[in-house]
């Protein structure tokens, strides 16, 4: 049985990514939340997570940490699910933008932390952050232009790429980022995804505030 250890749903963007993959593809797992920046949560992370962070996936004795590594493990473990697109060229594209999200956009992460239940007056972002925002929107627009005929998600059918960009949906909503039509439609579809709605409701109900 898989166990996914996650942080607070209101704040833990990295936890959301593999959680959403598991929920979308109906892969059975147990969810355990370790509250971040609490004495209890810190002790659990130090004792159990190799890098001291969430998310952490445990499969019997095997531990896999890091969101993207967990998603790759799930794709290997469940080849019957199209966690990545089946077509090799499209899969390469999906992996490229997912890796870019995973390793980049530090300005957006630092200036626009995920805060699902809050709305913030739009701040004045630095030029560097504005360029990152424009790059993310360009990725979404390009994907929707190429693959809209195949379905409502970035690559037509839902994939790991949608999960990798899911936290940005809430970041942009919280900070009032205007989106062009195709990106706005994808963002709306993501917010209406049943698993995303479930995560949001539980984030709103959480008692912790950072």
UniProtKB/TrEMBL annotation:
Q: Where is the GST N-terminal domain?
A: 2-82
Q: Which GO terms describe its biological process?
A: glutathione metabolic process; L-phenylalanine catabolic process
Give a yes or no for keyword Signal in this entry.
no
InterPro entries for this protein: Glutathione-S-Trfase_C_sf, Glutathione_S-Trfase, Glutathione_S-Trfase_N, Thioredoxin-like_sf
Keywords, sorted A to Z? Transferase
Q: Which CDD domains match?
A: GST_C_3, GST_N_1
**One Pfam family per UniProt:** GST_C_2
State if Transferase is listed as a keyword.
yes
Q: Name one GO molecular function term.
A: maleylacetoacetate isomerase activity
Matching PANTHER family = MALEYLACETOACETATE ISOMERASE
* Name assigned to this protein: Glutathione S-transferase family protein
| Organism of origin | Leeia aquatica
Traced from the root, the source organism's taxonomic lineage reads: Bacteria, Pseudomonadati, Pseudomonadota, Betaproteobacteria, Neisseriales
